[in-house]
């Protein structure tokens, strides 16, 4: 009887979500209690089932509740082209472009020796094996354009280049002025890079 | 096997929360899967228990999983003073001021005849009974400063004034310039009201 009221506990629990402070948590709780109890119960059920059964795809390390994710099971995806990303959200972003038909490999992070995250932790042994087994002809490295992303990218390139008897095309996402970006507001390192990598148009 | 992946279902389910679009829903799902599965399971459990057992307090209509809410069970709160609010969130806001020691009554909305919300739906019979039973000496009407809030307030005032043999002080939250508000940016109806309700200081 003297426990903290359930509603307060619920409002606190909502604050484990990213970007949700006390105020939004309160709004969420009231919103669901007011008129969305069925949706809330559905969310509760999906949360429970997801946390219990979603693991990593045994091939690409993306999240899935099956052994292989839908993308790895899709025969129409070209398995000789592999795009390496840091997070599952990056796959969603690339898929949204509708211009990529190959497969993926998710590092689930990037190299960060100080935090104890080495090649093993980001699955580079599995990656190497996948590249060899699938006889990949192209690897696209799509890690972030951050220092950590670049370091990880360099590490992967040397690892792949050390695989004997493998002819493979390795590329990196192009960097430069974003579409719609105004030069005036662009940081100078991006601008310098765009200038250095300028492309002929005639 | 051909169901929509669990993760996609979870991302959709998150979008039943107010202010949560596809992008935030995705971020929430990944955040919980990455490193917060215990928190997520706790949230799922609290959601389920809350939706199943939180109902309205039989006295003030605020949310509670018990017959009477913590506030109505608190003997130190003066039951002869009653503050009438539209939503449970309004109680939280007033409690946060730390300056009110009476009880509350929650309308859970306001009069809205076109939507079929009449006096019965906002609990005015219960309110009338409560005022009489508790021998209230003061009622503070804290409905919103909107047209609907004002209409509801007027309706409540006439209802209370029709109770025979009841001497009761009825007040309404003061309206005017917000603390820190600059006149330059204040809407003219608030400014006109502040002027009309000007208070003597000497
Ligand atoms: Zn996969
Ligand atoms: Zn109550």
Give an overview of the whole structure:
2 copies of one chain form a homodimer. Chain A is α/β, with parallel strands linked by helices. Helices cover 44% and strands 12% of the residues of chain A. The model of chain A has no long low-confidence stretch (mean pLDDT 91). Chains A and B meet through helix 1, helix 2, helix 3, strand 2 and helix 5 of A and helix 1, helix 2, helix 3, strand 2 and helix 5 of B. Bound molecules: zinc ion (2 copies). One zinc ion is lined by residues 57, 59-60, 62, 68-69, 71-72 of chain B.
Task: State the main characteristics.
homodimer, about 200 residues, alpha/beta, Dna Topoisomerase Vi A Subunit, Chain: A, domain 2, four-stranded parallel sheet, two-stranded antiparallel sheet, 8 helices, about 10% strand, globular, binds zinc ion, zinc-finger (chains A, B), Recombination protein RecR (chains A, B), Rcmb_RecR_Znf (chains A, B), TOPRIM_RecR (chains A, B)
Give a short synopsis of this structure.
2 copies of one chain form a homodimer. By secondary structure, chain A is of the alpha/beta class.
Q: What percent of residues of chain A adopt helix (DSSP H or I)?
A: 40-55%
From the N-terminal CA to the C-terminal CA of chain A, the straight-line distance is 79 Å
Sheet with the most strands, sense and barrel status of chain A: 4 strands, parallel
CATH architecture of the domain at 76-172 in chain A: 3-Layer(aba) Sandwich
Query: Which CATH class of the domain at 76-172 in chain A is shown?
Result: Alpha Beta
* Dominant shape of chain A: globular
For the largest interface in this structure, which chains are involved and how many residues does each contribute? A-B, 49 and 49 residues
Spell the H/E element sequence of chain A: HHHEEHEHEHEHEH
Nearest-angstrom radius of gyration of chain A? 22 Å
Uncertain spans of chain A: none
Report the count of strand segments of chain A.
6
Summing up helix and strand content along with how strands pair, one would put the structural category of chain A as alpha/beta
Mean pLDDT of chain A: 91
Spatial order of strands in the largest sheet of chain A: 4-3-5-6
Instruction: Please report which band the strand proportion of chain A falls in: under 5%, 5-15%, 15-25%, 25-35%, 35-45% or over 45%.
Output: 5-15%
CATH topology of the domain at 76-172 in chain A, by name, is Dna Topoisomerase Vi A Subunit, Chain: A, domain 2
